[in-house]
Amino acid sequence: MGEIEHKDMDDMLLLSKLLAQERNIPSVPEYGLYNKIYAYLQKEIPPLLADLSYAHKVELWRDIEHIFDHMEFGLQWPEILCQKMIGIMPLGKGKHAKSCFQLLKEFVTPEVWHHLQLNHNVTSLLLPSPSFAGIRFLNTAWHIGELTNKEYRGATHELWKKKVEIGQFLECFVFGNAIPSCEHLAFTWLPVFRNRQLPLYKLICENLDCLVIFPPKEEENWASSLMFQQALTFCAQKGIPVILAVEDPRQAACLQDLPGSLLDMMTVLAQESIPSFLSQENTPCCHYHYTVHLRKVFYDVERDAFWRQKECNEDLLQIKQDLNFLSQDSTKKQILQCRTDIQKKLGEEEQNQQKLHQALAGLFQQTTKLEEQLTAECGMSEDTLRLPDAFLMAQLAREYLETGRLQEAKDISCILEQAEFPYAYILPLLEQKQRGTKISTEGLERMKQQSDNEFVRHAKLALLEELGFSEQDAMQIARDIHMLDTPAETYYRGIWAEHTEKYGTAARLYEQAYRQGFQLAGQGLMRLVRNVKSLPLVRAADIMVPEACLLYGKELLQNKHYTKAGTYLKIAAGNGEVEAIDILARNLWQRIIRNYYKDISEEDMKTKLINCRKLFDFLGTKYPEDESIPETLGFIYQRMGDKQRALSTWMSCHTAEARYQCGRLYEYTSDTFPQDLDKAAAFFSEAMKLGSEKAKVEYDKVNGWKRKRAQKAKAAQTYRSTSNYSKRTESTRSSSDDSLCFITTAVCRALHKGDDCQELMVMRHFRDDVQTKNPLLQEMIREYYRVAPKIIECIQNSGKADIVYQEIWADDLCPILQNLQHHAYRQAVLGYIAMVERLSHQYGVPFLPNIEQDIVAYRQRE
Fold first, then answer.
1. How much is the pLDDT for 304?
2. Is 763:784 a contact under the CB 8 Å cutoff?
3. Any long-range contacts for 445-450 (C-beta under 8 Å, 24+ apart)?
C-alpha cells in the first residue's frame, strides 16, 4: 500500500512540475535590450496611436505585440534563429504519421525520434542543438520547464492510462540533439489534432521556412479538408514554400480543383525524394529581421494616411471645380467651410505623422541594435534572408514606390538582389514606371512568363498596360490577391465580383476605388446603376460620380426640386459633364432675362453675363451643330451692350429668331447701327421663310415705311436747311399720322435733327406698340392727334415758338425718352399724358369729355 502511495505521490509531483514551472528568463545580454525596447514601445507608441485616425489601431497594436512575441520566442530558444525551420504536417493519423516519423528518423537522433513517437499530438520543436539535455516544455501558462527522459516517458504513460490528453497541460515540447549532418535544419511537428488558433502554434508556423505535408493515400477528397486549405492559404500569404510529399503521383490529381492562389508556393515531390530535398536546404537562415516587420506594420499606418490625404486632395480639387459653377452665396459658404475643414484635417494628419516618425526612429534604432548583437553572436550574414522575410521586404518596397518613397524602395531592392531573391528583378521595373523612365523589355517578358504568387500578382496589376494584359486578365489576377493594396486592385476585384454577379461586393469595391481617385471605377458604378440596376442612382450621386450626379440632377429637376438638383448638376459640371453645363448655362440665362437677379449690383450682373457668355462659348465647341447656342450668345452680347458682336453671332446662325433679331437691329437707328430698312426687310424676309410669324408683322411695317419714305424723299430735310419748319412739317407729313405733331416739331427744333432721327423713332416705335396692346391708350393717342395741330398753331402765334419747343423737349420729352430707354413704360405714358394735359389747358384746347374719364381710369387702374 505504501508503495502505491509513493507512486501516486510521484505522479502528483510530476503533474505539479508540468503545471507550476516558472517563466524562464534567459540570462543573455540581448534579453535585457529586448526589455528596454519593449518598455520604450509601451511608453511612446500608445499615446501617438490614440491621436491617429487609423481605423485598425487595435489590430495594429496586436501585430506589434506579436512581433515582440517573435523576439521573445527567438531569445528563449536562440538555436532557432539561424536555422531553417521545416514544418512536418500529416493529414491523417496512424500510417501517415508513421511516414513522417520515418522521414524524421534520417535527421534526428534515435532518442529524439523515440520520444516523439510517444506523443505525436502535441506540437514539438526538434532543434539541432546540444545546449540542453532531456526535454523542454512550455505549459499552458507559458511557463518553461525541463523533464528528464524518464519523467517524460512517465508523464506520457500515466496521462495516457488516465485517458488525459497531455495537450491540456502543454503548449509544446522542445527536443534537441539532432544529427550533425543537418546542423542548419530545425524541424517542427505540427499534429493533426491541435488547436491551430493558439498563439504559440501561430508563432511556430510563421517561423517556418518550408512546410512538408503528407497527404493520405486512401482518401480521395483530402485536398478539400479545412486543415489542408488553411495551411495552403497561410503559406501563400506569408510566402512559405509547401512541399506535398506523395506516395503515389495520382494523389496530386485532386489539386486541380483548387484555386491558383492556394497553389502559389506548392511543389509536389515523391516521399523518397524528400530527404534529398531537405539535405539541399541544409544552409543557414536568419530569423531575426524584426525591424523589417516593425517597419511594415507601421508603414501600413503611413500608407493609410497617404490614401486619406490623396482622397482629401481629390475632394479639394472637386471643391475648386465646383466653385466655378456655384452662384448662390449660401452654397459657396458651405463649400468653402468644407474646404477649410478638409485643409485642417490634412494639417492635423501631417502633424500626427511627424510625431509618429520621431517615435518610430527611436524604436527602429534600438531594434536594429538588438539585431546587430544577435548577428555578432550567431555570425550570420545579412544576405541569408528567409524567403518569407524577402517577400515581406519586397512588398514593403512596392508600397514605398506607390507612395513616392523611391530611395527607401531602392535600398530594399539592393538588399534583395544581394540575397538572390528570385523576384528581385521586378522591383526595378516598378521603380522605372514610377519614375516615368523606359521599362526594361527583357524584364517585362520575363515577368509575363512568371508564375503567380501574392507579390507577383500585385506587380502584374501595377504594370498591367506595359505587360499588355487585358481587363479579363486583370480581373483574374485581382481575384486571387489576398490583400488589396491599391485602387486599381480594388477596381479589378470589383469587376470580378460583378462578373460573378456579386453586385453588392462589386459596388463596395468600386466605391472604395473611386474614392481613392481611380476614375474607371465610376464606370463600374454606373454599370450597376444602368444595366444591373442593383445600385441606387442616389448612392452613386452621393459618391460624386459625375454621370450619376447628372442623371440624378435631371431627375430632381423633373420633380421640381430645383435647389437640390442644382447642387448635383454643379458637381457633374465641375467634372466635365457637358450636358450638366448645358443645363446650368441655359438656367442661368433664363434667370437673367426673367430679372431673377434684379437686386444685385450692376457689377455683379456684368460678372454673371460674362460667366454666361463663357459657358455658351464652351458649349459651342462641344455642340457645333446646335444653332440655339449662337442664337443665345447673340442675346447675351446684346444684353452686354455689344450689338456688333450680337449681329455677327446672329448672322452665323441660321434660325428664324436669329434672322429676326438681325432685322430688328437695322429697323431703328442706334449708336451702333444706322437705320437700314432694306437690310431689315431682307432679314425679316429670311426669318419669315424659316417660320417666324412676328417677322411678317415687322416686314410689313418696314415696307410701309419704305413706301412713305419714297414719297417724301425729296422733301425730307433737317431743321438747319429750312426757315419755315411748320410749313415743311405740314407739307411733308400731311399723309402721315404724325402730321402737325408738336412732339416731332419740338424734337426737330430743339435738336436740329430731321424727323427720322433716333429719338423720334424710339418714341414712334413705343407709340405703335402701345396702340396695338391697349384700347384705352388708342383713344388717348387719337385725341392727341386731334388737339396737337391746334396747340402747334397757338405756339406759332405766340412769337416764342423756339423757346416753347426747347422747354417741351427739356421738361417733358427728355424724361419720357429716358423712361423708355430704361423700360419704365408706365412712367413714360404718364409723362405723355401730363405733357399733353398741361399744354391743352395752357393754350385753351380742351379734350373731349370721355378723354378726361379715360385719363382718370388709366391713372387709377395701374
1. 76
2. no
3. 450/423, 450/426
Q: Which residues are CB-contacts of 129 (< 8 A; sequence separation ≥ 6)?
A: 79, 176, 177, 178
What structural domains and CATH numbers belong to the chain?
1-83+290-383 (no CATH), 85-280 (3.40.50), 598-652 (no CATH), 654-711 (1.25.40), 713-861 (no CATH)
Q: For residue 414, what pLDDT is reported?
A: 93
Query: Where do the H-state alpha helices sit in 184-246?
Result: 199-206, 226-238
What is the pLDDT at residue 668?
83
Q: Where are the alpha helices (DSSP H) in 741-774?
A: 742-751, 758-773
Q: How far, in Å, CA of 9 to CA of 13, rounded? A: 6
Beta strands in 52-204 (DSSP E): 84-90, 123-126, 135-139, 144-147, 170-175, 185-189
Spatial separation of the C-alpha atoms in residues 526 and 423, rounded to whole Å: 38
List the Cα angle 370/371/377 in 5-degree steps. Answer: 95
Say what the pLDDT of residue 505 is.
93
pLDDT at 732: 34
DSSP 769-828: HHHHH-HHHHHHHHHHHHHHHHHHHHHHHTT-HHHHHHHIIIIIIHHHHHHHHTT-HHHH
Q: Retrieve residue 465's grid coordinates.
A: 498596360
C-beta separation of 185 from 278 below 8 A: yes
* Number of residues that make up the chain: 862
Contact between 188 and 125 (Cβ < 8 Å): yes
**Which residues of the chain carry a pLDDT beneath 50?**
1-9, 322-323, 325-327, 714-739
> Parallel, antiparallel, or unpaired for β 266-270 and 185-189?
unpaired
Q: What is the spatial distance between Cα 450 and Cα 624, in angstroms, rounded to a whole number?
A: 51
Residue 185 pairs in a beta bridge with 84
CA-to-CA distance for 806 and 791, rounded, in angstroms?
15
> Which value, to the nearest 10 degrees, does the dihedral of the CA atoms of residues 511, 514, 519, 524 take?
-10
Residue 849 CA: distances (Å) to CA of 65, 415, 740, 855:
108, 113, 23, 11
CA quadruple 60, 63, 69, 71: dihedral sign: negative
Strand, coil or helix: what is 89? strand
Q: Which residues, in sequence order, are CB contacts of 834 under 8 Å at separation 6+?
A: 812
Cβ 254 vs Cβ 221: under 8 Å? yes
Q: Which residues contact 279 (CB under 8 A, 6 or more apart)?
A: 181, 182
Q: What are the C-alpha distances in Å from 435 to residues 309, 410, 430, 707?
A: 21, 12, 9, 79
Q: Report how far residue 19's alpha carbon sits from residue 659's, in angstroms, rounded to the nearest whole number.
A: 104
Could you tell me how far CA 680 lies from the centroid of its own chain? Answer: 55
Cα separation, 176 vs 136, in Å, equals 9
Could you give phi then psi for residue 188, rounded to 5 degrees? -125, 125
